[in-house]
Amino acid sequence: MQVPGIRRTVSRILAMVFCLGLLAGLGGFYLLLQDRALRQAASEARILLRSALAIRGYTADHIFPKISRLPDGEFHAETVPSYAAQTVFRMVASDYGAYTYREPALNPTSSADLATPFEVELLQRFRADPALQELSGVRPTETDRLFYLARPIRITQEGCLSCHSTPARAPPAMLAKYGTGGGFGWEMNEVVAAQVLTVPVTQGLKGSLELVGVLGLGLAVIFGLAYVALVLALDRMVIRPLGALSRAADAASQSGDPRLGLPRAGAGEIRRLAESIDRLRISLGKAMGRLGREPAARPESGD
To answer: Which ranges does the record mark as transmembrane (predicted)?
Structure first.
């Protein structure tokens, strides 16, 4: 079995280290950018949700009291906080389709607010855990990836039940507009709906991937240059001098000429090795010379 040389062994080690370092660096950088994109989406979603809450509060505190005094006897949907918040948000987000704000319900007054299967899951989790105040995450759609932020809507005021307890208590104008098919049977402290806001994150995640690609290309170039430089330096300072030293030592061992010196080239360690081998060869030659003369001198001393 052929033993691999220094060049091949070191080259393999360097290539392995560079590849592992590149993968680890790119993976960590991608996770960092992805986390940053999601945190930015969450911050944006909370700001938009706070805006929706402000619209709901303004509608309930200022619009409803004034409109309810009108003597026309009609039902004005604009006085409903949910309707006002969703309508304003749709107007603001009309140019940004992936931004949505809904208040879905399992038993809504308007069929437009009927929960989708995904929203049903959110509502069921809120209803199952009264302490749960917020849900968030990323969900894929057919065309985009959306960050969603959801909060429960709980009945905490008796005034809500005047329209949503039984059809008999609801205003006739409301029944004329929406009918009696939904939006009734609500109870105090019950989670009847949820605020669900979505923010697109596809572009942010795509941008993170593009940055990782640019970084990967840059690191690959840097690692490649470092690899070539290290291999060339190793070849010049270690491998070639060792090869020359090996050939010279082999020639010197076969010739026996003490004047045949070893090359002094390469790194300092290689030069000191050559000097040590040279001194060892000279000392060994002298010792062998003395041993060669001793047999001839011993018979004379015996006579």
So the answer is: 12-33, 211-234
